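quick one: adenosine monophosphate bound model?
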Amino acid sequence: MLKFFNTLSRQVEEFQPIESGKVRMYICGPTVWNFAHIGNFRTFIFGDVLRRYLKFKGFELTHVMNLTDIDDRIINEAAARNISIDEFTEPFAQYFLEDFDALGNERPEIIPRATHHIAEMIDIISTLLDNGHAYESDGSIYYRITAFPEYGKLSKINFSGNRDGGSERIDTDKYDKEDARDFALWKLVGPDDQPGWDAPFGRGRPGWHIECSAMAMKYLGETFDLHAGGQDLQFPHHENEIAQSEGATGKQFAKYWIHSEFLKIDDVTMSKSKGNFFTFRDLKDQGYSPLAIRYLLLSVPYRKQLNFTFEGLQGAESTTERLRNFRSLVKESSGTGEEKDAVELVMIALKKFETAMDDDMNTAAALAAVHDMVREVNTVIAERSLSNDEKEAVLDAVSQFDAVLGIFGAETSEILDNDIENLIEDRQQARANRDFARSDEIRDLLAEQGIVLEDTKDGVRWKRK
Ligand code: AMP
Ligand code: ZN
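yep, here:
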């Protein structure tokens, strides 16, 4: 039974979509004003694993991830370069998607851009003005929090008796608002200011929160199953999305809210503003593989903080290499005989994997099931070749694990240099153990791949035929 910790109830709940067999999910996407850092990608990889696991469980999925292509930073950066916001954001949207793909994430079904949904935002704001949930002040439109008594139900922040700036994140210097907690839905701009859009309530540009309400409801309906994002979005962003959407429709917005924890570095949250970040590109330029970065970022369950270290990343490199080698080794195993021991091991591992993932996506326990299987099947392979049934069962399990985690890497028909060197090391080890059958098996396996070994006084050399 699949369970998630629902931020709305602060409880682990059984997941039951509104429509049987179908899941509608919204995950807040990036602001495309710069290169995304690996903290951002921890959240997007969590979203990808969530996506893939829902599919693994047999759900049909509509997954929306927006691109925020308008906010104050974007406007300022574009103005400083004397270009339009589209010209400024377009390359960053492309870089983001390139990095997103390179890290093995599946593209969501719908990737809408905020600036393409201004009409939908205007509609919601008009409804909120009509029903008293919004008001105009000095030309801008604000959300009236006192009109939504449930405000705070997600973040559980107690606002009572604290109406003027209970949280430091509330903008207390805006005296044109009725209440310090009220937030902008639409910001007034001058007739010639760019960017700006005409609306019945005046020319302006949207606030950040309204973007996600508009795009989520357009593609997923007024009520949908699952809304996720990083922990920092819980308040005020998601609280405000709920207030806007439910204030406009009178219906529940999202049924389950899932928030992922931060990536830290030296125990400080990784962020652009603190300057303590690595982008995916920084690490790739240093020679780290996308697969290892992905492995590291998903290896800790999403509700636990993860502290980034280069030792951890190095460890992830060795682990992903071991997984890849394992798959090659199984593929090369001869596939004769009738044995079934490994089939049994695989069934146990798959069960453990699913139990772990069902338990609020415990990726650490799921990985432990994968590694247990790898170790146990390796023990079998050290003694004999796998039977055909065993080989099929192991390769099928690997592809099932990988459909969810994406950590084994693309299947290449060509054996990689690293794999060769590892196999040579295994052969040396086998020889040292006087396990000549195994050492011959490795030599034959490499020969099949066109790799010739030459024993020299300086050690083993290899070359491709
Ligand atoms: P942004 O582009 O700033 O809107 O952020 C995109 C996503 O990255 C949001 O869901 C944030 O919650 C998330 N995020 C930002 N910093 C971190 C971090 N250090 N660790 C994990 N997620 C983060
Ligand atoms: Zn959002």
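Residues 28, 30-31, 39-40, 42-43, 229-230, 232-233, 262-263, 269-271 surround adenosine monophosphate (ligand 1) (CB under 6 Å).
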